[in-house]
Amino acid sequence: FKEVAASVSTGDELSFDEKDSFAPGEATYPNGSHVCELEIDPATGTIEILDYTVVDDFGKVVNPLLLEGQVHGGIGQGLGQALLECCAYEAESGQLLSASFMDYTMPRADDLPAIRFQRREVPCTTNPLGIKGAGEAGAIGAPPAIVNAVVNALAERGINHVDMPLTPNRVWRLATA
User: Fold this and answer.
1) pLDDT at residue number 13
2) In Å, what is the CA distance from 69 to each residue of 31, 106, 126, 134, 170?
3) Taking Cα atoms as reference points, which of 40, 32, 35, 22 lies closest to residue 120?
4) CA-to-CA distance for 35 and 145, rounded, in angstroms?
5) In 3D, which of 7, 38, 30, 26 has the Cα closest to residue 139?
6) What span, in angstroms and rounded, lies between the C-alpha atoms of 143 and 133?
7) Is the distance from CB of 146 to CB of 83 less than 8 angstroms?
8) Residue 104, pLDDT score
9) Spatial distance between the Cα atoms of 146 and 49, rounded to a whole number of angstroms
10) For strand 47-57 and strand 115-120, is the pairing parallel, antiparallel, or unpaired?
């Protein structure tokens, strides 16, 4: 730095501004798999997630701790989508009925299971850093993992599809039909 500063003539305007851009020729796609193990209480329809494992390939990881937090947070969002969250509207007027946190259920910290997170780093070949996007990976993989685990648990009753959210009432009705 000292050499660079010394090489600048005194009449030049000094600046630390730098601009650059990179436009990759192709999009990058992460790969992953989510596995959810759960139990359903047949008397109430309540779902308890016992174990949750996710393995992802985001290419070269720049900040592993930040990435793990991103995936954990996304799984929390996905759990909310699968089990709790629902916008309810009044049929006649279209009035939103779940407009406050008194009516709209969201996941809490104690709703989240222990999450085992593994990553594989297969560098991406379409960018110089070898990285792949990770933004929504947890939120995208969690709902189908949870829904498929419930469908699997109810398969012996002939259930092959369940609409979200998987509320205890909805699951109980399916389990006792």
Assistant:
1) 67
2) 17, 19, 26, 11, 31
3) 32
4) 6
5) 30
6) 19
7) yes
8) 87
9) 8
10) parallel
Q: Which two tokens stand for residue 27?
A: 């999009």
> Mean pLDDT for the chain?
91
Q: Measure the CA angle with vertex 160, ends 158 and 161; round to 5°.
A: 130
* CATH-assigned architecture of domain 26-83+113-175: 2-Layer Sandwich (3.30)
d(CA 54, CA 120): 11
Amino acid identity, position 24: P
Write the pLDDT tens digit of every residue in 16-71: 788 888 787 888 889 999 999 999 999 999 999 999 999 999 999 999 999 999 99
